[in-house]
Each structure stands twice: as structure tokens, then as C-alpha cells.
Amino acid sequence: MTVFGLLRVTPVTTEDITEDVAAAIDALESHDVTYETTPMATIIEAEDVHELFAACASAHDAVSTDEIQTLVQVEEKRAVEMTGADKMDAVEGELGREARSDE
Description:
The chain is α+β, with helices and mostly antiparallel strands. Helix content is 34%, strand content 28%.
């Protein structure tokens, strides 16, 4: 089984959120997940949905602000073993190029 998650932890404050976002990302290290952070969210990959949710909870808990908004979107492949790289390879194969702009 493969589980993919999109995680967005947003500290709600008028202060700089960089430190809290970094803490949320760092909290993922204590879990058996792989992840890649983008400017908008973090993509997480795990073998088990419970490990994915535990990682998301740790990221949420790592934020120190008084208000936090956390968005989690999950895709679970129960009948197929597939990595995020496999998914990207399929899309890029269909495109005939990388799935990003040259600029």
C-alpha cells in the first residue's frame, strides 16, 4: 500500500512564520515518511495511512502560534505499490517532457 499526502500547516499570525514552518517540516523527520516541501505545501509519502496522519499531527503540534490552520489531503493506493516518482514519470511520459516550465 502507498499513501500520499498534501500537508499545509499555516500559522495564523501577523509575525514572520518562517520559524514555525521550519519547525513543522522538521517534525516530519521523526516519522517513517519521505517528503518534499514546495512554496505552497509539503508532499508526504508513507507506506501506512496511520504513519502519514501521525506525521501530519506532529507537524501541526510543532507550530507555536496561538492559531494554526492545517490542511491535509490524502490519496491511498490500496491495490497498487506506487511511488511519487512513478506518478511523475507517468505524467512526464505522457507530456514527453518534464512537468515544469523551462523558466
